[in-house]
Amino acid sequence: MKQIIECVPNYSEGRDKTIIDAIVAAIRTVEGVRVLDVDPGEATNRTVVTFVGEPGPVCEAAFRGAARAQELIDMRQHHGAHPRSGATDVLPLIPVAGITLEECAQLARKLAERLYKELGIPCYCYEAAAFKPERKNLAVCREGEYEALPEKMASEDRKPDFGGVYNDVVAKSGATNVGARGFLVAVNFNLNTTSTRRAMAVAFDVREKGRKSPDGEGWIPGTLKGTKAIGWYIDEYGIAQVSMNITDIQATPLHVAFEEVSRAAAARGLRVTGAEIVGLVPKCVLLDAGRYYLEKQQRSLGISEAEIVKIAVKSMSLDDLKPFNPKEKVIEYLMEDKKNGLAQMSVEAFTRETASESPAPGGGSVSAAMGAFAAALATMVANLSAHKRGWDNRWKEFSDVAEEGQKLVDELIGLIDEDTAAFNRIMAAYGLPKGTPEEIAARNRAVEDATLYAAMVPLHTMEAALKALPLALQMAQKGNPASASDAGVAALAAVAAIKGARLNVRINAAGLKDKAPALPLLDRADTIVEEAEALEKQTLEAIQL
After folding, report:
1. Is 460 a catalytic residue?
2. Rounded to 10 degrees, what is the CA torsion of 412, 417, 420, 425?
3. pLDDT level of residue 178 (50, 70, 90 thresholds)
4. Phi-psi sector, 166: left (phi>0), alpha (psi -120 to 50), beta
5. pLDDT for 80-91, tens place per residue?
6. Which residues pair with 389 in a beta bridge?
7. Which of 255, 419, 460, 486 is catalytic?
8. Contact partners, residue 387, CB within 8 Å, separation at least 6
9. Domains and their CATH numbers in the chain
10. CA distance 410 to 374
11. pLDDT, tens digit (0-9, with 9 covering 90-100), for 140-162
C-alpha cells in the first residue's frame, strides 16, 4: 500500500495574498505533492494550508513552505487574534494511509531538526512527536507566544527541542511547532430542532470532557473518547447541530459517533437527520462505516469499494444538507492520478484495442482480464447466495467468500495493465543505445531484466486466477443453485486465464539467455495448470449440468 500523509501548516499571514500565494507556490514546487486547500483568515492573520502526498515529498514541501514563510513574514510586525509563535506556527504531519502515527512522529522530529540546522528556526516538537510528556500539549509549547521566546530560549526547561540562542534570525522567524497527530474528522450532526440549548445538552452527553458536575467541583465525562463537541444554530440551514471534532478515529470511528449522538438525541426527544463532514476524510473512515452498516443489515461485505462508500453516505445521511461527492471529500480519491489504462476502458474499447494492429494488449492482458471475470463471477454467486431468501443465517459464510473474491478482482484488474507495461519495458530496453561496449552491455542487461520480469507478470496472473478456482468450487457446491452455471463459467474462465498466461510465461522465459531463473517459473506454471484442471473438474461435476 502506498504511504500517504497529510500536512496542515499554519502560517502567520492571512491578509497579504501575495505572501500567501508565494508560500503555497513553494509547496507546489515539490513533485508528488497535492495542495488540497488554502484557507486564509483576516481576523486571525493566519492561513491554513492542507497538502498530501508520500512522506518524502510532503516533508520536503513542508520545509520549502517554512523557508519561504521565514523569508516573507516578519514576526516583529505580526498581530492577529490567534495564538502564534512563529512565521510557520504549527507544522503537523498526519498519517492517512499505509503509515503509522509513530512513523509520522519520527518524520516530524527529523523535519524539526532540519528546520533548525538549515534555516536557524527553533522548533518545539508536540503531540506524538514530543520529546517531553508535557509538550504533547501544543499550548505548553506555545505558552507566552512569540513575545515570550527570548525568555523561553534562555531557560533550560523551556527552551526549544531544537534551537539555541535568541538572535536576529529568531526575532524575524519566531519558533515553529512541529508535530504528528492522528487525523481529525470534523463533523456536524444535524438535529430536527432549532434549539441551541438542546443541541448543547446532547454535545455535553457525548463529548469526552462531558459537563460540569452539579456541585461545580468536577466534571461528568461524556460517552465518546477522543471527541470535542458543542451545540450551535446554523442560520444557513435553519437547524441546530452538534458540531464535533473526532481527534482519535481509532477510539471513536465516525459511525460510532453517529450512532451515539443519535442515541443521546433520541433520549432527549430529538432526532439526528443526517451528518455533514467538514473538510476531508481518509477513505478508511467511510469504508469502516459502510462495512459496519452492511453487517448490521446482514448483507455481504464483498461488494465494490464504491458501493461500500455509498452505503456509508446513505446510512449517515451525509448528503442531508447538500450533495456529498466522495471524489471531492476523500483524500485518497483526490490523490489518485487520472488513469487512462486498459482497465479503465469499456469492454468494447478494450476488445477493439486488442483487435488493432498494436501488439499490446496481447494474450497476457487478455488472460488477466479473463481471470478478473472468473473472480467476479464467483463473487457474484457469493453475493447472490448471501442475499437469498431463507439463507439469512448463512450471510457471513458467503460474505467472506465475496470479500476474498473482490480482492482477487482488484488484483487481476491491475495485472491487465501490468502485463502490457512489462511488454513495453522490453521494447524500451531494445531501444537503448548500443554504440559502445559499455552501452551494449547495459542494453543486454536491461533486455534480460525486462524479459525475466515479463515472464514473472503472467505467472502472477496464474497465481491469482488459481485462487479464484476454490471460490468457484465452493459456490458450485454450496452456493445458490440458480447460479450454479455462473460458478461453472467462473471455473472455465479461470482455467483459460491460467493456460493463456502460461503461454506468456513460456515465450518470455524462452527469450532469456540465462535459463537458470526461468526454470522455477516454468515448473511453477506447470504445477498451477495441474491444480487448476483438477479444481475445474470438481467444479463442473458439482454443478451437474
Report:
1. no
2. -110
3. very high
4. beta
5. 878 899 999 999
6. none
7. 419
8. 299, 300, 395
9. 4-180 (3.30.990.10), 185-335 (3.30.70.670), 342-543 (1.20.120.680)
10. 12
11. 999 999 999 999 999 989 999 99
Catalytic residue flag (residue 79) = no
Residue-wise pLDDT tens digits, 248-278? 899 999 999 999 999 999 999 999 999 998 7
| Cα–Cα distance, 24 to 196 (Å, whole number) | 38
Half-sphere exposure of 54 (CA within 13 A, CB side): 9
pTM over 0.85: no
d(CA 4, CA 401): 30
373-427: pLDDT as tens digits: 999 999 999 999 999 999 999 999 999 999 999 999 999 999 999 988 998 999 9
Q: Are 138 and 177 in contact (CB under 8 A)?
A: yes
Q: How confident is the model at residue 369 (pLDDT cuts 50, 70, 90)?
A: very high
Partner residues linked to 143 by β-bridges? none
111 contacts 93 by C-beta, under 8 angstroms = yes
pLDDT score for 319: 94
Q: Tell me the backbone φ, ψ of residue 31, rounded to 5 degrees.
A: -65, 135
Tell me the C-alpha distance between 145 and 83, whole Å: 6
Residues 497, 528 contacting (CB under 8 angstroms) = no
Residues 6+ apart with CB under 8 A from 100: none
Residues 6+ apart with CB under 8 A from 131: 109, 125, 161
Report, in angstroms and rounded to the nearest whole number, the Rg of the chain calculated over CA atoms. Answer: 29
Residue 501 clears pLDDT 90, i.e. is over it: yes
DSSP 180: E
Q: Which residues contact 51 (CB under 8 A, 6 or more apart)?
A: 6, 7, 27, 33, 34, 35, 36, 58, 61
Please pick, among 82, 320, 400, 410, the residue that the annotation labels catalytic.
Answer: 82
